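User: Protein folding is very new to me. Would you mind checking the protein record under this note? It all follows right here:
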Amino acid sequence: WRPSCPLALLAMLSLSAPLLSFSPPSLAPRALPRASTPSLSVSGGTETLDFTQGALRSQKELTDGDLFAMGRRARPSLDWSNLRARLEVEFGFTEEELSKYDAIQKDDLLKAYEMMQLCRQFENACNQAYMQGNIRGFMHLDNGQEAIPALIADAIKKGDKKFSYYREHTHALASGVSPDAIMAELFGKDTGTCRGTGGSMHIYDKETNFQGGWALVCEQLPYAAGAARSILLDRMLDPEGTKDDDRIAIVFVGEGGAQNGRMAECLNAAAKEKLPLLFIVIDNGRAINTFTPDVAANNDVYMQGQHYGVPGIKVDGGNLEETLKTGRAVVDYVRQKGPAILQVHTYRFQGHSPADPEHERGRKDEKKWARAEADPIKLFEASPLAEGLDLDGASKAVKAIVKQSLDFARDSPAPPAELAKELEFPDPPDTDYNLRTPAADAAEITKRITDPEALAVCEAHVASLQALAAKGEISIADAVNLAVLEEMLADPRTVMHAEDLQAGSSYNIPKLTQQTFGKLRGADEIIDEGHFLGKALGEGMNGYRPIVEMMNTNFAIYAMAEISSAGNTYATTGGQFEMPLTIVGAGGTAPNQSLGAEHSQPFHAYIMGIPGLKIGTAASPDAAYGMTKSMIRDNGPCFLFLPVKMMKETKGYAEVGRCMPINKCKLVHEASDAAVASGNAVTVLTYLHGLKECQSVIPEIQAEGLDIDLIELRSLKPLDVDTIRKSLERTHKVCILDESTNSGGVGATVSAIIHEQCFDLLDAPVRRLAMDDAPVPYASSMEVAVVRRGKDVVQAVFDFMLKKYQ
């Protein structure tokens, strides 16, 4: 408790401590309150289920300890006085402020009941449609947890940004998303929320700011934090237009999912920046089937925020009135002061999905009990609060809505097959980014929101880098820093995330971003790449252009889930949400770099299979500068890999102001006509450190009367086959110096494409010089057997001439 709270209140709270601390029932058993709980009616009698024998017996009182010992949870013994006291002590509400939450108007209760009925009947209809084969894939129903969408409909506004997980139908309904569009999405129809691209687990609706529907457990947490940051950014960029802005972001997560480390990271971020972010923890006590207390030491998720100064509270989701009262107060707190946690204790009546073999896992009896003792709809109908309300009228109206949604979904057309490919990228690969100019007021906004002295320092630094670029003396790292600063100066909606950002990180890529643009636009991050890349994704969905620097691209392994979702989002949302996101970092594996296995992984190869992602490499300052600018201006996710051992030592020219294509290879050295005419030329494809390796051995190859077309693979995806084909029309032989493994590497993909599309041009099989599948060792004596280099290219060219292809 806070020392400043009144002593009388402390005394009262200490008496009710078991109710507020939610001690495990096995430690503090007490009788299950049954005053307003309807009984389970079986075979015409009033009986309950014997959980020890599975038989029917006469109704009797069950203690919390009885239920907990058998893998069941009693409803929490909470009333408004307990909740009110916690709101006063933990959230800082005054008595006067709390008084406005003491009663819920009859009209509001009826609306809440109607929303609960809509959700229940909609989910029942989904279940039936699934069994009929109209809904396919995975589907997860929300029956038993309807007080939560009732709260959403009651207290959350259209402009608030909502992030849910795969059990989100009811959250979308409560957010104002059309039932017709939701059902059509489940049926896989073109009129669905996402044109049939998302399905049950991916409901999105831009108009109502319902932003998922995310299928990987807990991934939505940092996305919501990013959306909350976008609200603060909006207020910074346009203080006059947002002076009455009270928008918040809401994220739904299960009590099991909230045990994930992403929760702690987002609580830290929310507390650090006072984000308007509400964590709604849906506590149904189960994973797919596992009883959560069996695997989690602390099930009171609402208390996780104590370490960060984020208040939390737990309510009984079986009690509609108290859920609304408490929820209204907590939502108002988030609108006015900052983040908070609302844990709602519920029961999920259905299995994890309709295909779940629940009868084999001991849940059938439990769910019968829960439907009788903890159904929020039945409990409300049996309470005095329901007296005088037209419940039958509400239920009848809901039935018509659900029937209409089924008819609409059934009669809607399927999406065209070609839509899938159309949604691969927001911007065509051949987009000319030089034609994209900042908004007319961009310069004025940047000047208004930036400290004049800091702006002058930044502009002077930019001028010095531009001078180096013009003289051919700029490094790869500084070229990227120049591109980043130019884009941030030109477009105030561009933001930067990195570790050690204040100090410029390892290669100065984010240098001066925070010092110039402040902590919102230049975010120094905790050491978890998935967390801050996830926040960037949430910003990208909400109108910003985030840049994320990976200090080393291998660290992005921690962000694989977020990178995957970034690639999928534009398509999965049916093209509603563009995903501008630029990831840039040093990586790759240089010969003899002595970094060991974990820092020498081919992460560029790991992500080649992620749809919707443009992947580039740059081994020169010119390419690094021009491709960075283009990627920042692209409306989809892009990843630029830079050579870790060339970041500072490789220097050259960069054409200031020019955006380079991000879908093209680069012919760096062209074989002589004489070598081509005599059949002594080979096309060599490479990237990152391979470019330097190949350039260093060209004189040796030429000394033998041979030559190469050296092509830098600046675009790994999409691959520029045209440039490769043009070279093969001259050389008819190709070698790939590949900075990834033999199995599943970039070279394997490129080789397959060449064989499929250019086979008639080949006089010999494609020669791959890939890293061995063994982990890259530290010692040079072993590393030489794993990592390929320039001398291997020389031997491969000689082998082609000798017709040695093995």
